[in-house]
Amino acid sequence: MALDSLLITKRQAHKLEKVVSLLTLPTYDPNALLDFVKQTLHAETDIEMLYRLGFNDIQQAELSKIRTRKRPLGAVLLLQIHETTNIPIAELRSKMGDTRRRFA
User: By residue range, what is the domain housing residue 103?
Assistant: First the structure.
């Protein structure tokens, strides 16, 4: 294998960093954001919160993967939370401990 095939460009490295970094951030806590949203929407359960956000097709297992940090909280869910609650994206990201400059 040639050495040049092992090297990645700066752009590829930056893209990889963005994808991996959310789950590895020591400050990342999706539970803090999800609990805040649940409280804001006056929902008693996670399923009720998802329903109020307009996600009738997301299963409890998917949200459980986010809560246990097996899957990052994605942009679609974050945007839907923003659109439903009118809370700025920056504040939502701050609530979940995302300190990166850009959302991946």
Answer: 27-104
pLDDT value, residue 81: 95
Tokens of 59: 């299963």
Torsion of CA 63, 68, 71, 74, to 10 degrees: 50
- The amino acid sitting at 85 is T
**Calpha distance 102→93 (Å, rounded):** 10
pLDDT digits (tens, 9 = 90+) for 52-104: 998 887 778 888 999 999 888 888 899 999 999 999 999 999 999 988 776 55
- Provide the number of structural domains found in the chain: 1
Question: Phi/psi class of residue 98: alpha, beta or left (left: φ > 0; alpha: ψ in -120 to 50)?
Answer: beta
Round to whole Å and give the CA distance between 57 and 37.
18
Separation CA 26–CA 78 (nearest Å):
20
**Is 14 inside any structural domain?**
no
